[in-house]
Amino acid sequence: MAALELEDGTIWYETSGEGPPLVFVHGGWMNGQAWQPQIEHFADDHRVVTLDVRGHGQTGATDRDRYSIDLFTDDLEALLAHLEIEQPILCGLSLGSMIVQQYLHRHPAAATGAILGGAVRSMPPVELPAGVKPFVSPMPALATTLSLTGPQATFRSMLYSIRATTGERWLSVDPDVRTAAMDAVGDVSRSEFRKIFGALYRFEPPALTGVDTPTLVIHGEQEAPLVKQQGARIATAVADGRHFIFDQSGHLVNQDRPQAFNEATRAFLSQLEAEPAG
């Protein structure tokens, strides 16, 4: 991996292949390896970029006491500038989809395309009225649970609460994928887990009206119903959006159905190439 030195930390990233830039942003408490099925598939004809977002993976802890989706988006912009990438194709999973949405909000036509897997607009996926979130924040309870049980047990308890509305296999239908995800959570420290959760919880989703970037949203059928509704809303909000739901897959849809995800992505990329510039 390579390092991007910032004033308050180091962002670790990896590149492979040559061609149009395809930039992958992973989900919460994961790392760039969450995109391995896509890296292997697209590196033959794309410049594939993955990064470990602050608090995650090789990047780990940074000096900031508080994280936000805006800060993560700043980091993405810094990495694109560092790599001299213009008009990227951005791929975001879960938390990564929030980062990509914020990037599109800032730069409605600066990306060639966007692919959002397990896309979510807010956490919880019920968008609360402005000003309400601080008064119903789960952060104090989360801090207590983290101090007593650690990141993996805390994440597991979050999964149990989601199962009440989605069934047994929300995160993934594949035991190996679930195990790898839990291993990645175990690499995150208590303090970083809390900061990442805070960034997710505090995020106020942009409307995305005026975004011209063609956008593909993909969910698994085991995804939480409210999250799938949010995905449909994203696809409707942008000028050129489409929303797919794959069966036999959960939140980590790119790993549960890698072939279907890659085929849908490649078809989407082919459409982008066929469209006239400007």
UniProtKB/TrEMBL annotation:
<dbReference type="Pfam" id="PF00561">
    <property type="entry name" value="Abhydrolase_1"/>
</dbReference>
<dbReference type="InterPro" id="IPR050266">
    <property type="entry name" value="AB_hydrolase_sf"/>
</dbReference>
<dbReference type="GO" id="GO:0016020">
    <property type="term" value="C:membrane"/>
</dbReference>
<dbReference type="InterPro" id="IPR029058">
    <property type="entry name" value="AB_hydrolase_fold"/>
</dbReference>
<protein>
    <submittedName>
        <fullName>Alpha/beta hydrolase</fullName>
    </submittedName>
</protein>
<feature type="domain" description="AB hydrolase-1">
    <location>
        <begin position="20"/>
        <end position="255"/>
    </location>
</feature>
<dbReference type="GO" id="GO:0016787">
    <property type="term" value="F:hydrolase activity"/>
</dbReference>
<dbReference type="InterPro" id="IPR000073">
    <property type="entry name" value="AB_hydrolase_1"/>
</dbReference>
<keyword id="KW-0378">Hydrolase</keyword>
